[in-house]
Write a structure and sequence with these properties.
It is a single chain. By secondary structure, this protein is of the alpha+beta class. Helix content is 35%, strand content 23%. It is built from 14 helices and 20 strands. The protein has helices spanning 11-23, 32-38, 57-76, 90-96, 98-101, 124-132, 183-201, 223-240, 280-284, 310-321, 344-356, 371-377, 389-394, 412-419, and strands spanning 42-43, 54-55, 80-81, 87-89, 110-112, 115-119, 143-152, 168-178, 207-212, 244-248, 257-263, 269-278, 289-290, 296-297, 300-305, 334-338, 361-363, 383-387, 396-401, 410-411. An 8-stranded mixed beta sheet has the order 3-7-8-15-12-11-9-10, with helices on both faces. Helix 2 (32-38) packs across helix 10. The longest helix has 20 residues, at 57-76. It starts with 10 loop residues before the first helix and ends in an 8-residue tail after the last helix.
Length: 427
């Protein structure tokens, strides 16, 4: 049969999870560590190591679908994607300033062929090198470079937790190389991308924070650059009409940033998305573009992350939706429920129709229990398609929605056409 359940959670365990959701034993927000494991989305193992979760099939679907969405959104917004290695020579991070200001959060260097290489803690040094590998004219700017890339941070064991604090991170990152006059517009456009992504994912920001430098030596010493960058981000926030709070001591070591904060089930805040202005790394890497006067000019580097780390984004989605993801993100989008064995051939043909349309469908046959039990088990699935003798004979489907609403029986092809590709909310 097509589309047998691949979830890591067994049927009895899944029924218990669904029962808690239906009866209200779970709060509006959920602990992603517990629910993510129960629903077979991700897990950890001491043999792999702390802070290094692995993704089970259903969790990998959510992750990959989210990655596809953000890549598509970036392409539409004029970004070009690159790929860069997760290793770099120690010298690269000495130039960027990470070695001086961020070393405690980096893994130790490895000796390789007489050189020291490091697992990267961020993608920006690689992107700066990619930018300077070619000459650029002012006509090319803004140049928007994006990557969903891996990075590694030596987090202490005491702060690790589920998917929110991990040591291996898949980051939705991008760097915009632009003129000073283009910075405000690019930063504002990044905030709009964040707003659109949150709407598509069905989440909301807890608050916006203007993160500024604080006391101490963890920040690069360039007061004029800090002042200019902070003024630009303040202008962007004021023009956007967003309420925000300015907080000292939360900036990146190279510049101030706008942090978009989200809250977990216990009310704890974390940063999901960021927009940053950086005058530091363009200077350190000696980046230029040729201006209309034929002379060399220094670009500004705008760092921005729309959904932040994929791990933290999925953790927040689990907690907000309790496993009942928006239809375009759901691991299983349709479950097909033949009432008896007699309808199995028709249900199998309908499953093949779903497959041809790129839908994630699952066949739940009668040997898995009564129709009511199978419907309860599929309570988190957006569309539950029931096929009885009447539906099989007339090529109809009876559809129940996740909220319990029932649709009138309709031709299978008509239902699928109306369904589209389950991406209408994000197109």
């Amino acid at each position: 049969m097509l589309f047998s359940r691949s979830s890591g959670a067994g049927a009895p365990e899944l029924r218990r999870v669904v029962t808690r959701l239906i009866t209200g034993e779970e709060t509006t927000m959920h602990d992603h560590r517990k629910l993510g494991r129960e629903l077979g989305l991700f897990d950890t193992d001491p043999l792999i190591g702390a802070g290094l979760p692995y993704w089970l099939p259903d969790g990998a679907v959510v992750r990959h679908t989210l990655e596809e969405y953000i890549r598509d959104a970036e392409r539409r917004a004029g970004y070009r994607h690159v790929c860069s290695p997760v290793l770099g020579k120690r010298e690269l991070y000495e130039i960027s300033g990470h070695w001086e200001h961020y070393r405690d959060d980096m893994f130790p260097p490895m000796d390789l062929g007489g050189e020291q290489v490091v697992l990267r803690p961020s993608l920006c040094p690689h992107h700066a090198v990619i930018y300077r590998s070619r000459s650029h004219s002012y006509r090319e700017l803004p140049l928007r470079m994006a990557e969903l890339g891996g990075m590694y941070r030596s987090e202490l064991s005491g702060v690790l937790g589920g998917l929110t604090r991990v040591r291996a991170i898949q980051l939705n990152d991008a760097h915009i190389f632009c003129t000073l006059d283009q910075v405000a517009e690019e930063a504002a456009a990044a905030l709009e991308l964040i707003r659109s992504a949150y709407a598509a994912m069905g989440i909301s920001a807890a608050r916006y924070r203007l993160s500024l430098a604080g006391e101490g030596g963890k920040y690069v010493a360039a007061p004029e650059n800090w002042k200019r960058a902070a003024a630009l981000l303040t202008e962007v926030l004021d023009r956007s009409g967003l309420e925000y709070e300015a907080v000292e001591g939360e900036a990146a070591f190279y510049g101030p940033k706008i942090d978009v904060q989200v809250a977990d089930s216990a009310g704890r805040e974390s940063t999901l998305s960021t927009v940053q202005v950086d005058f530091h790394q363009p200077e350190r890497f000696d980046l230029h573009y040729t201006g209309p006067d034929g002379a060399k000019h220094r670009p500004v580097m705008v760092h921005r992350s729309i959904i932040g780390s994929v791990e933290r984004a999925v953790a927040h989605l689990i907690e907000v939706h309790g496993g009942a993801f928006p239809a375009w993100l759901a691991p299983t989008q349709l479950v097909i429920l033949p009432i008896s064995d007699a309808e199995l051939p028709h249900a199998d043909r309908f499953a093949r129709q779903c497959l041809r349309r790129g839908l994630r469908a699952e066949l739940s046959p009668p040997d898995r229990g009564s129709l009511g039990a199978r419907i309860r088990e599929a309570r988190l699935v957006p569309y539950q398609v029931v096929i009885g003798a009447k539906e099989a004979e007339a090529d109809l489907v009876s559809v129940r929605l996740r909220d319990g609403q029932r649709l009138d029986a309709q031709p299978a092809e008509e239902f699928l056409a109306g369904l589209g590709d389950l991406r209408s909310s994000v197109d």
